[in-house]
From TrEMBL, chain A:
GO molecular function: 3-(3-hydroxyphenyl)propionate hydroxylase activity; FAD binding
Source organism superkingdom: Bacteria
Gene field: mhpA
Entry-linked PANTHER family: BINDING MONOOXYGENASE, PUTATIVE (JCVI)-RELATED (PTHR43004:SF19), TRK SYSTEM POTASSIUM UPTAKE PROTEIN (PTHR43004)
UniProt keyword Flavoprotein present: yes
EC nos: 1.14.13.127
Record protein name field: 3-(3-hydroxy-phenyl)propionate/3-hydroxycinnamic acid hydroxylase
Organism from which the protein derives: Pacificibacter marinus
UniProtKB/TrEMBL annotation, chain B:
Protein name: DUF2783 domain-containing protein
Short name of one Pfam family: DUF2783
Organism: Pacificibacter marinus
Length: 542, 61
């Protein structure tokens, strides 16, 4: 049997018996475990590359509850490459104004205007079920166009046996169990990853333990689309911090950081929740708007990661590999960066164009990302929940000064918003032969900019690209069996010049399929380019 | 540039008097909060992370 652990928001891949269940184990190049935002996006990415992928999910669709609600610009850019960024953007809520309070006192407000020349805003708010629905729709669209993606709902992996060059999965279905062989297994099965437990792997790190009460309330009354954040909220029993944040469909997300020792049942009592929510919603106007409680949940987080994300033939991604606090929107967004990093590497390895060293580079690069996220998340947690008397004195000094002086505002830490990870000084990087802008240095993900009638990132996703600004380079370059697309412009937009040329008149950038920069030069140098490409696919590494 | 650790304030006695005077009438917790604000203001004025690191080390004795 396959137990149902949660109710579905949308049924998207109902169980259907397949012939493979009655046959000896079939070999698949890539099997993805888990159809959440990370697993489904990976399936779309692989499928669009023509790499056969089988996705197994133990349910038949998307679970209820808003869960991850902040999707960053980088995530939108990755999703745009996969064909569903616009859908996420269009359904999502864009907010600019944030207000920070300390107890009853307003500390400061900020206004996040979008950056000129980018296709997408800094982030949008959207309930996770919509994100998963759009990702699944993109998978269906790709399937209809011939992409080799197969999704099997209500297929629960119960056992993983590792061999030298493949793994065997035992899969439970409503019609009994069967086995599948996979060259590569990608475990995207969430923070409580059953795959991790099946392999007996640890999930370690600096552990913060905290409980968050989440209440999604529906208000049709006029209420500002702003982000309100309280340090030491003045509402009775509201804990260390509280957050009010807008989602689509007239829903507001309210988070209360309750601490570790709580009485779960009492906290989940709707009367208790309403008392706090009433106090919060009326705090600025004195009146309680009409609202309905749509969804309530308590969740616990730990800030930690697996020591290694690659274990022979099983690779971990997303929350299965690393978990952070919710401050800064670094959970789902880092998971999307994981699969952005992994998909093209898997494609090349499955095609025989690169070796296992390229898979190892996923571990190095995304460990770097996970460490950065854990560091930022830990610092935010330390600011919000001071661990000593003196740290509280300094925290409160910052909040007091921030009311009067803007120098103190950058010290206020209610979560540093997820920005794309830069793979500084890692082995896949080629040479940086320019004193160009820092944000386009080797290892960075490409910032967007207007390009032709559209945007740069619309033109460079999915394959290795040579971006050539104000100089010449040949078309149809090929190295180590990999084709390099050449994209030349002699009329770069102002933003493209600022972000990619700086003080230089011309530049040549080698860009990976995940839009990270491999190398840059002031002029085209074929020998150097070929060497950089080999470096970028770990061709000569053992 | 390195952290200045030789006499650098004119009328040192006057400054010391002003510093203590700023704490007059404050409770222990108010004084602690005042000191924290003062440190943050001075640190921002200095700005240079290298100097600030040297100052943190010097304060450790």
């Amino acid at each position: 049997m396959v137990d149902i652990r949660y109710d579905l928001a949308f049924t998207l891949y109902p169980y259907e018996k397949v012939a493979a269940q009655d046959h000896p184990p079939a070999r698949h190049p890539v099997v993805v475990i888990g159809g959440g935002p990370v697993g489904m996006a990976l399936a779309v990415d692989l499928g669009q590359r023509g790499t056969p992928v089988l996705l197994l999910d133990d349910h038949e669709g998307v679970g209820q509850g808003s869960r991850a609600i902040c999707f960053s610009k980088r995530t939108l850019e990755i999703c745009d490459r996969l064909g569903f960024g616009q859908a996420v953007h269009d359904k999502g809520v864009i907010w600019n104004v944030g207000r920070v309070f300390h107890g009853e006192t307003p500390v400061f407000n900020f206004d996040l205007q979008p950056e000129d020349g980018d296709k997408f805003p800094a982030f949008v708010n959207l309930q996770q079920p919509y994100f998963e629905k759009f990702a699944t729709k993109a998978a269906r669209t790709a399937q209809n166009q011939g992409a080799p993606i197969e999704i099997r709902g209500r297929n629960r992996v119960t056992q993983i046996d590792q061999h030298d060059t493949y793994a065997v999965l035992t899969v439970e279905t409503p019609d009994g169990s069967y086995q599948i062989e996979a060259d590569w297994v990608i475990a995207c099965d969430g923070a409580r990853s059953p795959s991790r437990k099946m392999l007996g792997l640890e999930f370690k790190g600096r552990v913060f333990e905290d409980n968050f009460l989440i209440a999604d309330v529906k208000m049709t009354a006029d209420f500002p689309s702003e982000r309100w954040f309280w340090f030491e909220p003045p509402f009775e029993g509201a804990g260390q911090s509280a957050l009010l944040h807008k989602q689509p469909d007239d829903i507001w997300r309210i988070d209360f950081q309750l601490g570790w020792d709580i009485d779960r049942d009492a906290e989940l009592d709707p009367a208790n929740i309403r008392r706090r929510v009433d106090a919060m919603l009326s705090s600025q106007t004195g009146t309680v708007p009409a609202y309905d409680l749509e969804w309530i949940s308590i969740y616990t987080f730990q800030c930690r990661r697996m020591e290694k994300f690659v274990h022979n033939r099983v690779i971990f991604a997303g929350d299965a590999a690393h978990q952070v606090s919710p401050f800064g929107a670094r959970g789902a967004n880092s998971g999307l960066q994981d699969i952005d990093n992994l998909a093209w590497k898997l494609e090349l390895v499955v095609k025989g164009l690169a070796g296992d060293a390229l898979i190892e580079s996923y571990d190095m690069e995304r460990s770097h990302g996970a460490d950065e996220n854990i560091l930022n998340s830990s610092r935010a947690t330390d600011f919000m929940t001071p661990k000593s008397a003196i740290s509280k004195v300094f925290r409160n000094a910052v909040l007091t000064l921030a009311q009067k002086h803007d120098f103190a505002r950058p010290l206020v830490n209610s979560g540093r918003l997820s920005v794309p990870c830069i793979y500084d000084d890692l082995p896949l990087n080629g040479p940086d032969m320019m004193t160009g802008p820092a944000r386009t240095r080797v290892g960075a993900s490409c910032p967007d900019a207007p390009f032709g009638d559209g945007f740069l990132l619309e033109n460079i996703g999915g394959k290795f690209t040579l971006l050539v600004l104000n100089t010449q380079a040949p078309q149809d370059l090929c190295e180590a069996g990999i084709e390099i697309e050449t994209l030349i412009t002699h009329t770069p937009s102002a933003e493209l010049r600022t972000r990619y040329l700086g003080q230089h008149d011309a530049a040549v950038y080698l860009i990976r399929p995940d839009q990270h920069i491999v190398a840059r030069w002031p002029t085209f140098d074929e020998t150097a380019l070929r060497a950089a490409l080999r470096t970028a696919i770990a061709k000569d590494r053992v | 540039m390195s952290l200045i650790l030789h006499p650098n304030i004119k009328n040192t006695d006057g400054f010391y008097d002003t510093l203590l005077g700023a704490h007059d009438g404050l409770s222990k917790s108010e004084s602690d909060a005042f000191n924290a604000r003062l440190i943050l203001i001075l640190a921002n004025h200095i700005g240079d992370r290298e100097i600030l690191t040297q100052a943190l080390l010097a304060a450790k004795l």
